[in-house]
Design a protein that fits this description.
about 170 residues, alpha+beta, Nucleoside Triphosphate Pyrophosphohydrolase, eight-stranded mixed sheet, globular, NUDIX_hydrolase_dom, Nudix_hydrolase_domain
Length: about 170
C-alpha cells in the first residue's frame, strides 16, 4: 500500500515566546500544572471595519511572543526580551530542562507558514504588577492553567498550554 505524504510549505515566519508561570508555593517541587498560574495577554488586533467597532479594537488571547532581532544572541534570548517588552516581567528559571514547545500554522492574514517556539519560564519574584506594552497589549492576567486553556483564542495556543502542563507534571515525577 502506497501512502501519500502531504508536504507543507516552508516556514517563512518565526516567533519566540515564554509560557510564563508563577506559583503561590515557594517550593519548586510543587510546580504541577494544577498549582501554577499562567500569564495570558489580551493582544490588540487589527481595527475592525464595522462602524460600531471603530473605537474598540478587537482583542485576542495568545501567549507573549515576538520576532528575533539582530541583537538577540539566541532564540531563547529573543523570547525573554519579548516577554520583558510586552509585560515588564522577567524569568527566574527556565523549566523542564529548557525543552521547547513548537506550534506551526498558516497565518490567516498573509497565508505564510508560521512557527512559534515557546519555553516554560518561572516568573521572577512575586510581582503582581504587569506593565503591558500599550501599543500591542490591552491587558494581561494570571489564570489557572485549566482556565488559560479555555480562554486562549486559538487552538494552537491551547495545544501549547496543554503540552506545557504535561511537561510540568512529567518533570515533577522525576
Amino acid at each position: 500500500m502506497h501512502m501519500t505524504q502531504v508536504t507543507r510549505p516552508p516556514v517563512t515566519e518565526r516567533s519566540y515566546g515564554i509560557v510564563l508561570v508563577r506559583s503561590p508555593s515557594i517550593k519548586r517541587s510543587s510546580l504541577k500544572s494544577k498549582d501554577v498560574e499562567v500569564l495570558l495577554v489580551h493582544q490588540l488586533g487589527p481595527r475592525l471595519p464595522s462602524a460600531s467597532q471603530i473605537h474598540s479594537p478587537s482583542t485576542f488571547i495568545p501567549l507573549p511572543k515576538g520576532h528575533k532581532e539582530p541583537a538577540d544572541a539566541t532564540d531563547l534570548a529573543a523570547a525573554l526580551r519579548e516577554l520583558r517588552e510586552e509585560t515588564g516581567l522577567s524569568v527566574s528559571t527556565i523549566l523542564c530542562g529548557e525543552k521547547a514547545i513548537k506550534e506551526r500554522y498558516t497565518n490567516p492574514r498573509n497565508g505564510q507558514e508560521k512557527e512559534n517556539t515557546f519555553w516554560i519560564g518561572l516568573a521572577e519574584g512575586d510581582r503582581e504588577g504587569v506593565q503591558v506594552q500599550v501599543e500591542e497589549i490591552e491587558r494581561a492576567e494570571w489564570v489557572q492553567m485549566e482556565e488559560a486553556v479555555s480562554k486562549a483564542t486559538y487552538e494552537e495556543t491551547k495545544l501549547v498550554l496543554r503540552e506545557a502542563a504535561r511537561m510540568l507534571d512529567e518533570e515533577q515525577k522525576h
